[in-house]
Amino acid sequence: MCFLMSLQKPRKMYLLIGKPLKEKKKKETTHYASMERIPKEMPALMRSYKVQAKAADVGFDWDDVSGALDKVNEEWAELMEIIESNNRDKIEEELGDLIFAVVNVARFMKIRPELALQKTVEKFLRRFKYIEDTLGKKGTKVHDSKPRRNGFLLE
C-alpha cells in the first residue's frame, strides 16, 4: 500500500465514525444532552468527573474548592445521620452523594479520582503486606490477630 493510500484511511474512518458523532453533538440542544452522551459504561469515578466538568463549563459550579469541601462535609453529616436508620437504600444513596462530592473536590484540584484511588489501593496493599509479614514472623496469622490491638494501624 502506498503512503497516500494509508493517509486516506484515517480520513475514511473519520467520515464513517467521527462525522456522525460530530453531527450528533450538533443536534444536542441542551447541556444535559451533552452530559447524557458520557458513556454509562465508563467507570463511575471518571464519569462523575466528566459530568461535573461539563456542568462547570456552563457555570454550574462552586466559586472555589471551599464550596466543594463544604459539600463533602454536608454529605458526610447526612451519611452519618442515615447510618443510624440501617436503611440500606438510603445509606447507598448518601454514600453515592458523598463520593460524588469528593470527586468534585478532585476535579477542582485537577486530580484524577480514579488514579488517586488506585494509588490508595496500592498503598493499602503495601501496608497490609507489611502487617501480614510482621505477624507471620511472630508466628501469627492475620485472621487470628487483632491488628489494632497489636499496634498496627492502617493509616
Cα gyration radius (Å): 23 Å
Unreliable spans are 1-9, 11-16
Q: Beta-strand level of the residues, as a percent range?
A: under 5%
Class from secondary-structure proportions:
mainly alpha
> For the terminal residues, how far apart are their CA atoms?
59 Å
What does this structure look like?
This protein is mostly helical. The protein folds into 2 domains: 109 residues, Helix Hairpins (Orthogonal Bundle); 44 residues. It has 6 helices and no strands.
Task: Indicate the topology.
Elements: H1 3-27, H2 31-36, H3 44-57, H4 65-83, H5 88-108, H6 113-137
Helix pairs in contact: 3-5, 4-5
Question: What features would you highlight for this structure?
Answer:
155 residues; mainly alpha; Helix Hairpins
